[in-house]
Amino acid sequence: MRFRERILGRFWRKTARTAATAAIAASLLTTQTALACTSFLIRTTDDSAVYARTMEFAMPMESSAMVIPRGFTLTSTGPDNTPAMTWTSKYGAVGLNAMGITALVDGMNEKGLTGGILYFPGFAGYADPAKSDPAKSLAPWDVLTWALTSFATVAEVKAALSEIAIVEVVQSDMKIVPPVHYTLHDPSGASLVIEPMDGTLKVYDNPLGVMTNSPPFDWHQINLSNYVKISPFNAPALELEGQKIQPLGQGSGLLGIPGDPTPPSRFVRALGYSISAERKPSGIESVRLAEHVLNNFDIPRGWIREGTDKATEQLEYTQWSAIADLKNRVYYVKTYDDQVLRSIDLMSFDLDAKQTVTAPLKPAAAAPALEFPKP
């Protein structure tokens, strides 16, 4: 089936162009550099899925791998480090934190519910903590942890969102209120996007399984109408005045696919890769497939720059990439300085332990030598 038919026929039929859409696009020109996280879902031949994402940031995130057990008490952070919502984990979860805090910025739980936090500058808008019940309030960086430790499916998360408020809280290391949105997936292939805007939550079912950064998710959906002729199939020859003009080399059906690192362009590319890739069974085959797709979104230091002052600029880059096998409950990670994919089998841990377990993402000292057979 052609790429165009798969997008228009299988996923959505949105063609309207509105003044609001134009205003959103124009507002991007005034926002800060959008950190370039990319996430997607790859379906498997056994009716499950593999989730993958990159994590880009300019300041060091100092992430560690973390396992949160069942029955563990978690408390969110309110303004001025006051306690906010407290809950007890129902499910064990694994993932990556940032800056040493007990909160996952990406992860998976024992039921296969998986998701991540992605940057959403220029559009994120949280509830006023002064007008919210602290017992139901979550800081932006605690929402994913609450979801992964509390629910088994995307549908359960969606049903519970009316019970919480995501409130404006300054993150002490970043010195700002981090502007973020959230992506969630479960083993059935169901996906959800949650975007805090103007103090309320915009919630979208996401059959595409793809999410990047600003602008809002519904804008990205509409933007796909600009690419309905792109296809993984090579373009046929063109006949003009009796002359047959052949395409040059392979990939002619993808001519015009956006290659820049902006969020709209990455959204289109991630969708193209994820739905066109040949499906494999759950397990290492699908994990390696997701890794190959992820490699297309890796950003080296220096490719994206803001300003010209080299003495003060911070270079955004892909600090780590993560993959989650939703069926087998295995979580994988590789870092900028160590591209070897490391696995964490969640179900091999004691999920009834009393404390969290963490492991730093230490790079290998050097590339391992290739072993040759001895003569």
Physical arrangement of strands within the biggest beta sheet? 13-12-11-8-7-6-3-19
What spatial form do the alpha-carbon principal axes imply?
globular
SS strand fraction: 25-35%
CATH hierarchy class name:
Alpha Beta
Low-confidence stretches: 1-34
Structure description:
There is one protein chain. The protein is an alpha+beta fold and 375 residues long. The chain has a single domain (11-223, 278-360), classed as Penicillin V Acylase, Chain A. The protein is 18% helix and 27% strand. It is built from seven helices and 19 strands. The protein has helices at residues 3-11, 19-27, 143-150, 154-160, 217-223, 263-276, 284-295; strands at residues 39-43, 49-57, 64-68, 73-77, 83-88, 93-96, 106-109, 114-119, 137-138, 165-166, 180-185, 191-197, 200-205, 238-240, 243-245, 317-325, 330-335, 338-345, 357-360. It has an eight-stranded antiparallel sheet with strand order 13-12-11-8-7-6-3-19, covered by helices on one side. It is globular.
